[in-house]
Amino acid sequence: MQTKTATRFRQHYTALLDLRLPKQCPLCRRFCFDHGLCADCWQGLVFITPPFCQCFGRPLAYAIGDHLCGSCFTKMPPLAEIRSCFLYNDRSRQLILKFKHGDALHLTLLFAHFLKRLSLPWKSQTICLCRFRFMPNDIFTGGSTNQPVLLIDDVMITGATPYEAVRTRQKAGSGPVRGLVLARVLRHGL
Ligand SMILES: [Zn+2]
Ligand SMILES: [Zn+2]
């Protein structure tokens, strides 16, 4: 009974709050039903879905036996896995620039939601979260040698930055390094 009353109160309180503070799309500020993107902005994002390379996360045209792209098949990258939410296009660029340079910190929750969906299987293995290019030099000191690491960045262009960061740190004794990226640039031959 108490739970029902509490639920009803919460519903009324939320409805009242919606009237006073209507929800808006974090990108175009159009009014919408929840805290996510509006339908138009959502449609502009190209999410990366299977099939993709099990190592580098590159989208594949069709599912293949070993689930590796040609590049990883030829030479395995130093990272154990990289996963990206969506392709880097006009819409995702708008979103990321708004967050980085437009003071749109309200996008944090939305990004966290996107990344959380990608990172679930790795949650229990990680010891650090930081951007590829800002990985501190002493991160594997103090008894954390051989521990798996999860790195997060906003955009991946060629993979050169994460590769370089990972090679250096693996020499210092890290365990497998995995990466999460919001958007990745997809070029022919990447
Ligand atoms: Zn919108
Ligand atoms: Zn690959």
Structure description:
- The chain is an alpha/beta fold.
- It folds into 2 domains: 1-43, no CATH class; 45-184, no CATH class.
- It has helices at residues 2-20, 39-44, 70-74, 90-101, 107-119, 160-171, and strands at 81-87, 149-156, 177-184.
- The radius of gyration is 20 Å and the shape is elongated.
- The mean pLDDT is 78.
- One zinc ion binds at residues 25, 27-28, 30, 37-38, 40-41.
Concise overview:
The protein has 6 helices and 3 strands; from the N terminus they run αααβααβαβ. With 190 residues, the protein is an alpha/beta fold. It folds into 2 domains: 43 residues, no CATH class; 140 residues, no CATH class.
Q: Based on helices, strands and strand pairing, what is the structural class? A: alpha/beta
Q: What share of residues are in beta strands?
A: 5-15%
Average pLDDT score: 78
Helicity level = 25-40%
Number of strands: 3
User: What's the multimeric state?
Assistant: single chain
- What is the succession of H and E elements? HHHEHHEHE
Q: Please tally the helical runs, counting DSSP H or I stretches of 4 or more residues.
A: 6
The CA-CA distance between the termini, in Å, is 59 Å
Largest sheet: 3 strands, parallel
Bound molecules: zinc ion
Which word captures the global form? elongated
Across the major sheet, the strand order is: 1-3-2
